[in-house]
Amino acid sequence: MPEKQHEFELIPLHPLRRLEKRIEKIESFSPTIDVREFLKELLDIIKMNQGLVDELVKVNSALRIELSRLPAKLDELVSKLGELLSIIKAAATEETTPPSESSKPFVEKIEKLVEANKKIVESNESVLSALEEIEKRLRKPVLRHTLPLRKPLPPKQ
C-alpha cells in the first residue's frame, strides 16, 4: 500500500505567525465578566420586566372596566340632551304665542315705554346736532374788519 504523502506548498511565514499570535491572544483572554454577577443582573432585569407586565395588565383591566361604563354614560348624556332640546323647543313655542289677557296691561305699558324711549332718542339727536352746530361756530376763526395790509412806500429822496 502506498503511504500517504503530505502535500507541501511554499507560503510566506509572516501571515502564519500573525495568526498564531492572534490565537494565543484569544486563548489567553480570560473574561472579566463574572458569570454569577451577570446572571444576577439578568434575573433582576427579568423581574423588573415581569413587574412592568403585571402593572400593564392591571392598567389594561381598569381601562376595560371604564370603557364598559362609557356606553351607559353616553346614553344618559343623550337622554339629558334630548330633555334639554325639548325644554328649549317648548320655550320657543311659548315665546311665539300671542300674549294672554292677563299680560295685556304689561304689554301696553312696555309699548308706552318703547314709544317714550323713541321720543327721548329723537330729542337727544336734535340736541346733539345743535351742539355740533355750536361747536362748528366756536371753532371758526373770528374775522375782524381790518384794513388790508399794504407794502410800505419807499422813502422819497
Beginning-to-end CA distance, first to last residue: 165 Å
Order of helices and strands: HHH
Which percent range describes the beta-strand content?
Answer: under 5%
* Number of helical segments with 4 or more residues: 3
Q: Which percent range fits the helix content?
A: over 70%
Structural class: mainly alpha
How would you sum up the major sheet? none
Q: Which ranges are low-confidence, i.e. pLDDT below 50, for 5 or more consecutive residues?
A: none
Textual characterization of the structure:
The protein has about 160 residues and is mostly helical. It folds into two domains: about 15-95; about 100-140. It is built from three helices and no strands. The longest helix is centred in the middle third of the chain and has 62 residues, at about 35-95. It is elongated, with a radius of gyration of 54 Å. The termini are far apart. The mean pLDDT is about 85.
What is the secondary structure topology, with strand pairs?
Elements: H1 13-28, H2 35-96, H3 104-139
Please provide a brief summary of the model:
With 157 residues, the chain is mostly helical. The protein is built from three helices and no strands.
